C-alpha cells in the first residue's frame, strides 16, 4: 500500500470510532453499550458535523459568501466548530453566547480568531439567541445567520452521517439509541434515519432534570425556546439526568474506562445505563459529545 494522500480539514469531520463500554457496562451484560467518540472530530466535538453541513449548504446555496460574516448563538461547542471552519475556509465568524461559558471555550474561540458578543448569564442560551436575532435584524446584509436551532442542515448532518455510521459499525445490531437534546440535531437526525433502517429501534432522548442544570450543551426543553428542528414526537421515551449523575459518570469513565470526557458524555452514559438496567438483552448506542479538556476548570473532577 502506498502512503495515503493528505486530507482537507473538513474531510476529517465524522466517521468517528465506536467504542465498547464493556467494563462500565459489565453489570448489565449481556446488554451491550457502545459510544461514538465524537471528540475525534477536528475541533473536538459532535458539533463539527452540524457546523460543516450548515456551512457547506450555505456556501452551495449562495447564502454564505466571502464578504459575509457567519453569525450564530452557541453554548460553546458549535461556536468552536464554526470558528475552526471559518479559520480553515476564510470566513469571518461572530458568536453570541452567555458570558458565563467556561474560560477554556472563550480561549479556544479567540484562538481561532472569532469575534464574540457576551449576553446576560441569567438569560441563558435563550438570551444569546435573542441577541443573535437582534444583530442580524440590524445588519442583514453583513451576516449569514446560521441559526443552528432552526436550520435543517443541522439534523441532516446526523441523518446522513452519524446514523449511517452507527448502523454500519454495529452491523445493524443496534436496538436502542440514547442521546441528549441541545438543538436536538443529533437526536432528531440520527433517530429518524435509524428508525427508517429498522422501525423497531427505540429512541430515548435525554434532558437535564432542571432548568438550572449545569450540563453544558444540554437544553431543558420545557422551559426553553423550542428549536424548530426538534421533533418531540420522535422519542419513545425521555429520561431526565441530574447534573451530579453526569459529573459522577464522567469521573467513572475517566477512571474505569480511560475515557476523559465531558459532563455531557457522562450524562449520556448514565442515561444509556439506566436503559440497560431494564433490559435482558440489547445493543445500546450513545454519543460522547466531547472530551473533558474544555472542562478542566470545573470543580467536580
Ligand atoms: N453535548 C454537548 C457537549 C453539546 O455541546 C451539545 C450541543 N449543544 C449537545 C450535547 C447536544 O447536541 P445537539 O445540539 O445536536 O442536540
UniProtKB/TrEMBL annotation:
GO biological process terms held by the UniProt record: cysteine biosynthetic process from serine
InterPro entries: Cys_Synth/Cystath_Beta-Synth (IPR050214), P-phosphate_BS (IPR001216), TrpB-like_PALP (IPR001926), TrpB-like_PALP_sf (IPR036052)
Family matches, as CDD domains: CBS_like
Cofactors demanded by this protein: pyridoxal 5'-phosphate
Domain Tryptophan synthase beta chain-like PALP: 11-290
GO MF term (any one): transferase activity, transferring alkyl or aryl (other than methyl) groups
Pfam family, one: PALP
Gene3D superfamilies listed in its UniProt record: 3.40.50.1100
Keywords from the named record: Amino-acid biosynthesis, Cysteine biosynthesis, Pyridoxal phosphate, Transferase
Sequence similarity: Belongs to the cysteine synthase/cystathionine beta-synthase family.
Protein name: Cysteine synthase
Amino acid at each position: 500500500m502506498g502512503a495515503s494522500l493528505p486530507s482537507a480539514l473538513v474531510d476529517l469531520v465524522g466517521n468517528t470510532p465506536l467504542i465498547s463500554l464493556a467494563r462500565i457496562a459489565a453489570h448489565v451484560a449481556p446488554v451491550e453499550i457502545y459510544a461514538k467518540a465524537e471528540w475525534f472530530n477536528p475541533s473536538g466535538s459532535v458539533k463539527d458535523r452540524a457546523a460543516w453541513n450548515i456551512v457547506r449548504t450555505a456556501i452551495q446555496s449562495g447564502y454564505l459568501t466571502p464578504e459575509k460574516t457567519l453569525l450564530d448563538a452557541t453554548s460553546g461547542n458549535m461556536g468552536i466548530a464554526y470558528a475552526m471552519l471559518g479559520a480553515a475556509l476564510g470566513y469571518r465568524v461572530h458568536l453570541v453566547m452567555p458570558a458565563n461559558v467556561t474560560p477554556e471555550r472563550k480561549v479556544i474561540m479567540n484562538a481561532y480568531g472569532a469575534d464574540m458578543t457576551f449576553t446576560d448569564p441569567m438569560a441563558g442560551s435563550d438570551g444569546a439567541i435573542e441577541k443573535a436575532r437582534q444583530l442580524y435584524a440590524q445588519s442583514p446584509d453583513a451576516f449569514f445567520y446560521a441559526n443552528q436551532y432552526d436550520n435543517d442542515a443541522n439534523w441532516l448532518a446526523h441523518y446522513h452521517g452519524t446514523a449511517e455510521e452507527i448502523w454500519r459499525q454495529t452491523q445493524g445490531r443496534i436496538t436502542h439509541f440514547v442521546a441528549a437534546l441541545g438543538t436536538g440535531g443529533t437526536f432528531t437526525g440520527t433517530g429518524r434515519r435509524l428508525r427508517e433502517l429498522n422501525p423497531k429501534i427505540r429512541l430515548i432522548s435525554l434532558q437535564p432534570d432542571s432548568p438550572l442544570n449545569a450540563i453544558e450543551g444540554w437544553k431543558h426543553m420545557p422551559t426553553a425556546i423550542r428549536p424548530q428542528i426538534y421533533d418531540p414526537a420522535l422519542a419513545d421515551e425521555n429520561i431526565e439526568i441530574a447534573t451530579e449523575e453526569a459529573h459522577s459518570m464522567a469521573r467513572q469513565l475517566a477512571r474505569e474506562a480511560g475515557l476523559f470526557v465531558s459532563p455531557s458524555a457522562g450524562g449520556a452514559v448514565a442515561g444509556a445505563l439506566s436503559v440497560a438496567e431494564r433490559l435482558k438483552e440489547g445493543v445500546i448506542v450513545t454519543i460522547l459529545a466531547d472530551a473533558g479538556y474544555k472542562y478542566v476548570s470545573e470543580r467536580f473532577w
